Amino acid sequence: MTQTRPGGRTARTRAAVLTATVDELIETGYAGLSMESVAHRAGVHKATVYRRWGTLEGLLVDALTFFADQSVPTPDTGDIDGDLRELARSALAVLADRTGQALVRAMVSAGHHSQVAQVIRAFWADHTTMVAEIVARAVRRGELPPDTRPADVSRAIGAPLYMRLLVTAEPLDSAAADQAAAAVAAAARAGVFASS
Amino acid sequence: MTQTRPGGRTARTRAAVLTATVDELIETGYAGLSMESVAHRAGVHKATVYRRWGTLEGLLVDALTFFADQSVPTPDTGDIDGDLRELARSALAVLADRTGQALVRAMVSAGHHSQVAQVIRAFWADHTTMVAEIVARAVRRGELPPDTRPADVSRAIGAPLYMRLLVTAEPLDSAAADQAAAAVAAAARAGVFASS
DNA sequence: ATCTGATGCGACGAATCGTTGCATTAAGGG
DNA sequence: CCCTTAATGCAACGATTCGTCGCATCAGAT
Known about the structure:
CATH architecture of the largest domain in chain A: Orthogonal Bundle
Largest sheet of chain A: none
Oligomer: homodimer
Order of helices and strands of chain A: HHHHHHHHH
Radius of gyration of chain A: 20 Å
Number of domains of chain A: 2
Helix content of chain A: over 70%
Shape of chain A: elongated
Distance between the termini of chain A: 57 Å
Structural class of chain A: mainly alpha
CATH superfamily of the largest domain in chain A: Tetracycline Repressor, domain 2
Number of helices of chain A: 9
Strand content of chain A: under 5%
Number of strands of chain A: 0
CATH topology of the largest domain in chain A: Tetracycline Repressor, domain 2
Mean pLDDT of chain A: 94
């Protein structure tokens, strides 16, 4: 029976290596990431990193699961505009943070790898579930068309913010988040995200 | 006096190398791009590539200017909805094409390099100028609020499409483009992109 | 036809990569 | 407390890649 040892040194090593991974991502990006530099920054021998994670992709996937554990509660402000604004500001909190930026950029750079793609799909599936709840309440209140697609709303909230981070390199401030929320609200009310 | 020779072999070499660059980007992405593989695919010695372009960044910048020369005429369909739909479909044409995808992904991966960032800024400045013309006409027709910000409209059109390409890996079809255009139209009409 | 910029060619030192065998450390059970 | 054995440290390695160099050759341009 092969025993595994989750506690003590193993956990310390994992935390050190994954923290070092993010710090390296912040400084050099995924393109400049190397197993050896991560190991050195973590104060760990490179053979350890190779044995535990194997590849850069494995390192990134573990880092993503390690740092993305904190789940945000579903907003419920009483109207769709407030809920969408809360969602946009949650997204902003991640995308304006150095760690969040580094991880998102790395996800994009490594998005073609199957395991990374799986993490991305899982994230957006969760996000869509959250949005579905908000949309359902808005429909009940008569604020939105009954056949409004949660997935479309989910993507539309984040799109302007990801655009700023990844493409145009424009500032990520609360004004941007609020504008994103307002744009989605207007479009959703107009039935742009309705299936019929 | 140092002479430069733009014609004949020089131009052929440039075309071969830049085409090879894009083909490599399509196959391996910017992360997997190397001067040597580009040279080999172009049927050119690697020293030539190093001498002419120096770095991967230089190669990418030249490839971007080489393939992004075709300018699109400003749409003028008679109403803002039609114009925005045309704009979105033009963006779709680029983002749905293998070459366009490869170049956009590379731009994102190398966006931190100053010259690449400069190309990106120039592109969006041009795009904003085009949108400004469309918005001005729409304002004259009374379709949009007078203080609608062209830059915001410009980004909002592309955002859902870039989101699909870079983040969620969802299909880039005409339905996506039309939805993006409709969402922007609704938001713009509601005054979300107005400065006041 | 001549001049000269551009390219081809091969080789090089340097750096990086991923692996391997063995010694050492420390977690976890008795 | 001791023992077993994961987990890690360590050093070295062959392989590969990287960027540069000197020199020979090719082909525009005049």
